[in-house]
């Protein structure tokens, strides 16, 4: 990247600008690869949701907590995934009021592709910054997330999400 590419950015915003750019780039690569693999209706949020359903399923409330979103937003994600044949809702054997969300065969196939694509994307980053650079980046982000979470600088709903505990 050219040094002047961020010339219009406010001083002190480079980290945020670079993180947003990385996330957007990774999201687009992920979406393109899922489309190429025959899963053109799976966006990053859907992919993460599918990986968090788990082997034994989950509820929309728990999935929302894991994703750091409201139960209603998680319900919309689940509805999309159910319509596309990735998950199904079943009665929860432990709570008659709840519905358990489980992966279908298509959902399990998709999750395998997701993990492979995410590993490949991470490998590309490792190739770009080196193994040591990737380890330093990962460790720095992990430390920063923990420190910000523990300092109360992360909104409560997001502090509950699984990825803040990395």
From TrEMBL:
InterPro entries associated with the record: HTH_MarR-typ (IPR000835), MarR/SlyA-like (IPR039422), Tscrpt_reg_MarR-type_CS (IPR023187), WH-like_DNA-bd_sf (IPR036388), WH_DNA-bd_sf (IPR036390)
Q: Is the keyword Cell inner membrane assigned to this protein?
A: no
| Residues of the signal peptide | none
The UniProt keywords, alphabetically, are:
DNA-binding, Transcription, Transcription regulation
Q: Where are the transmembrane segments?
A: none
Gene Ontology biological-process annotations: response to stress
UniProt-listed Gene3D superfamilies: Winged helix-like DNA-binding domain superfamily/Winged helix DNA-binding domain
The molecular function terms in GO held by this entry are: DNA binding; DNA-binding transcription factor activity
Domain HTH marR-type residues, every copy: 12-146
What superkingdom heads the lineage? Bacteria
- The question of whether Isomerase is a record keyword is answered with no
Protein name from the UniProt record: MarR family transcriptional regulator
Source organism per entry reads Yinghuangia soli
